[in-house]
Design brief:
binds pyridoxine-5'-phosphate, 11 helices, 47% helix, alpha/beta, 249 residues
Amino acid sequence: MLKLGVNIDHVATLRQARYRGAPTDRQVEPDPVAAALACEQAGCHGITAHLREDRRHIIDNDVRRLRDSIRTRLNLEMANTPEIVAFALEIKPAIVCLVPEHRMEVTTEGGLDVAGQEAALTELRRRMNDAGIEVSLFIDPDPAQIDASARVGAQFIELHTGRFADHYHRKDARNEELQRLIRSARQAHAAGLLVNAGHGLTVENVALIHLVPHLVELNIGHSLVSRAIFIGLDAAIREMLGVLQNYPG
Ligand code: PXP
């Protein structure tokens, strides 16, 4: 079955909208850790959190509490900066997903340029693996980036589905992007990489992602938290899991 990793950043975004700067010893709502536990209760397979340099949503204490309380796998999304790398090596999540990060962006806009920083990423991949942490690289569905990811020795890639999602309502552009995702998943699988995907996925558009072979896990955040406002978090997770069950593998 295609696994579901829930990105709980947007629960923290809502909290920070009211409580940015509040002391971390006082639990304020909504608590992303409580949300993560509710997602696990509903059957998700992993929890993803992005610790951004500006701490705009998830903060260090959330990651520590997630590590100590969740029962599935913690996937820490992060940029390759010395401070965040040191934090990850201390916390030891099950897996880190390396992403590019720009302060002015609303969300992660493009994939990581693995080909342009192969040596640095190989070194980081080694340090993480030596600490018992698996490594995933968030990349655009681009043959050069997939080849570079294999050379870096990452265990996983996460294919950026943002363009597919953006073009979902324009059939030609959407199908073109879907073909890129399909070719990329095949190439990555042949190179020995495990393949995840994510960004901009919804219960509606994820049905077409079923055409992409070799997927292990989808990481989904914004649409699940948005759906939760109307139907509740438990129902939103179960609804998505119901759709993912139909993945042919
Ligand atoms: N995967 C990665 C690497 C991301 O950066 C994000 C967004 O934080 C997601 C998945 C989830 O994207 P969305 O919130 O659009 O579902």
